[in-house]
Design goal:
Blueprint: H1 11-26, H2 31-41, H3 44-61, H4 66-73, H5 77-89, H6 92-103, H7 105-122
């Protein structure tokens, strides 16, 4: 697990580092640039952790049950609860990303594939999959 020094940096320096980090992310222009930066910045475990959090937020947004998400994503109930709390109470960033993903055709195709993989690999049944009327197509619930 990541560790941060017990000796904090001066507040002004911390703010400047945060600003530089945000601008570095905002300045990345392509998916490959983002991938390269994340490969340099994060360990494989850290990348998996962040990817799962986004997937949890997407599943919560689609109406999946928290216990089902816990089983599907192989994460603790506490992790699902934390993402759910953040999404509902402070998750401005999650909501921006999810909203953009719903609108962009490229993301919609990926979300549909994600949903289909979940159905296939985890044999989702009525008890853990949100009830969706038969006449609704998958892209309509994204």
């Amino acid at each position: 697990m990541a560790q941060v020094s017990r000796m904090p940096l001066p507040k002004e320096l911390t703010l400047q580092i945060q600003l530089l980090f945000r601008r570095a992310l905002a300045g990345l222009r392509s998916e490959q640039d983002v991938a390269d930066f994340l490969d340099d910045l994060l360990t494989p475990t850290e990348k998996t952790m962040l990817q799962k959090r986004l997937a949890i937020a997407l599943l919560l947004d689609k109406g999946y049950d928290q216990r089902a998400i816990h089983r599907i994503m192989k994460v603790s109930v506490a992790t699902v609860n934390a993402v759910n709390y953040w999404l509902k109470n402070q998750g401005k960033g999650y909501r921006i990303v999810i909203s953009r993903m719903r609108k962009e055709e490229q993301f919609v195709a990926h979300l549909e594939k994600f949903d289909n993989l979940l159905k296939e690999f985890f044999s989702l049944g009525k008890s853990i999959y949100p009830r969706v009327p038969k006449e609704v197509k998958p892209k309509d619930i994204l």
